[in-house]
Description:
Elements: H1 6-9, E1 18-21, H2 28-45, E2 52-57, H3 63-76, E3 80-86, H4 89-98, E4 103-107, E5 116-123, H5 131-142, E6 159-161, H6 166-176, E7 182-189, H7 195-203, E8 207-213, H8 231-241, E9 245-249, E10 256-260, E11 265-266, H9 268-281, E12 289-293, H10 298-306, E13 310-314, H11 318-328, E14 332-334, E15 340-342, H12 351-364, H13 369-372, E16 379-386, H14 392-395, H15 397-410, E17 414-420, E18 426-433, H16 436-453
Parallel strand pairs: 2-3, 2-4, 3-6, 7-8, 7-9, 12-13
Antiparallel strand pairs: 1-5, 4-5, 9-10, 10-11, 14-15, 16-18, 17-18
Amino acid sequence: MPKSTKSQQKVRFGTDGIRGVANIELTAEVALMVGRCAAHYMCNVKNGSPGRVMVGKDTRVSGDMIEAALVAGISSAGCEAWRVGITPTPGLAFLTKALNGDCGIMISASHNPAEDNGIKVFSGEGLKLEDEDERAIEGLIGRGPNAIKVPSGDNVGASFDKGNMAVNYITHVKRVLRGVFIEGKIVVDCANGAASRYAKRIFKDAAEEVIFINADEDGRKINVDCGSTRPDKLARKVLKHGAALGFAFDGDADRVIFIDEKGNIVDGDQIMLLCAGRMIAENRLPKKTVVTTVMTNMGFERALKKIGGKMIRTGVGDKFVLREMAAGGYNLGGEQSGHIIFLDLTTTGDGLLTAAQTLKYAAADKTPFSQQTKMKRSAQFLKNIRVPNRDAFYENAKIQKKVAEIEKRLGADGRVVVRPSGTEPLIRVMVETWDREQAEACTDEILETVRKELKVD
């Protein structure tokens, strides 16, 4: 068996798929092997026969290159590749389940810069893969080109253009908006990404006037000074147009951030609080519980408790939120970053659907959006530090001791979250209290210990 290449040996799933600089780290060769091995494992191994793989992409220029390589890999495993073209990540997940795919593969680096790209794999149920499935696919990739026996002749898989199937997802989201109308203007920032063509069809009649910005499907400008990672740009547009509200997606539209009529950012915590309040009132929130992550603001927890709700925290990542939701029978969960999951309606974080659901609740309340999303926040101070080896954090007793010392000092009035990044060589340090100066001082104290112990220059 030929020796596997260096690039193949390094392929690893992070917290949200495989990511890297397109054509440097995430090459066509890597994409071909991911397509072949993911299709083989998800179809031939798990389901016992060659099957159907749905493939979608955002607007990045490198998407065409990676798509071609992925499709070649899928076909070489004897499976059919159904290409749905430019689509949001939640759209690809929805179509995978709705069209009876064995798995779905999305080409996107989400909110990352335009030069990056990524590959996310979904099960036939439209769910992000379990860890053991990701490890199995990694193992096949690491074994090199001859890891699986490939078919020949008419047993090779075919490729089909299924871009017309996107209407199924658009119709699904628009159902939430039936009868919804916002008095005044709304501004929608599509981040020059996958939401561009979809948002125009979904939200064009949701208000007296809908202003779309950064909606050119320009893959060279995806996430560049726009979208959910730069809500300040949207805020200025909302104020300029005197809009009732605005919202911004990231490149693959799996998250959304709102802006109120005063130009204030309304993040995922506030969106979940608004929706939870309405769902509790309608008796539609099981156990009156919302699933969030360790990054969710303490102000959310306090406000949710006041309206009779409860909160469960998980690790960072919407797949961890989803697992807890599925295990406990909950239907609302998400992250501060704007990844929100309405499990009755979707299987993953869905920015378009979250925007629709939020508009539905906002339209039913005639008060200004700023009043509907009002929430007293605690001070969260977050800093990152680049380290030579992020995994060394787990084994360092002095760092753990310092974290425990800060936690004891803060008591019930604060929290500490220290974790390695899932995608970069970083340690993320967050301290939360009701006093910003204290939060910043404690964060710096932990960072200094990390710097010394992990020998950061």
